[in-house]
């Protein structure tokens, strides 16, 4: 009977070891790399990792090479294998020049500034509704 129960733990990652994966983290970062190892807590080791930074309003992106990357399992929102055949058919293109890359970074900074302005309002509203009022980083969703 137990053999019929599918993997629902980190054991299900065994099929994608040594394959190219996309990982989305809780802070919104998108990482592409080769999954080299994992443990029972879904802590992951990525090799040849790049962080893909997307423009907020245009279908362009830029990549930042980050190399070997260790990710704590609790920070993973999404993990999936990258289909190498389909990867080139995605309608988002890389930044063509340094000017477009600067534009992408400016859009990210604008998004961060907006979040910094609106987070206190959101926190106050949630506090009035009875949610946690802790004002530091952590697991406050």
In short, what is this structure?
The protein has 141 residues and is an alpha+beta fold. It is built from one helix and six strands, in the order ββββββα.
Question: What do you see in this structure?
Answer:
This protein has 141 residues and is α+β, with helices and mostly antiparallel strands. It has a domain at 2-96: Roll (SH3 type barrels). It has one helix at residues 98-128; strands spanning 20-25, 30-38, 44-54, 60-71, 76-81, 93-94. Strands 5-1-2-3-4-6 form a six-stranded mixed beta sheet, with helices on one face. Strand 1 (20-25) and strand 2 form a beta hairpin. Its main location: cytoplasm.
Helix-strand blueprint:
Layout: E1 20-25, E2 30-38, E3 44-54, E4 60-71, E5 76-81, E6 93-94, H1 98-128
Parallel strand pairs: 4-6
Antiparallel strand pairs: 1-2, 1-5, 2-3, 3-4
C-alpha-based Rg, rounded: 18 Å
Give the CATH class of one domain.
Answer: Mainly Beta
The major sheet is characterized as:
6 strands, mixed
Share in β-strands: 25-35%
CA-based shape = flat
What is the H-and-E element order? EEEEEEH
Instruction: Give the distance, in angstroms, between the N- and C-terminal Cα atoms.
Output: 38 Å
- What's the rounded overall pLDDT mean? 83
Low-confidence residue ranges: none
Number of helices: 1
- How many distinct beta strands? 6
Q: What share of residues is helical?
A: 10-25%
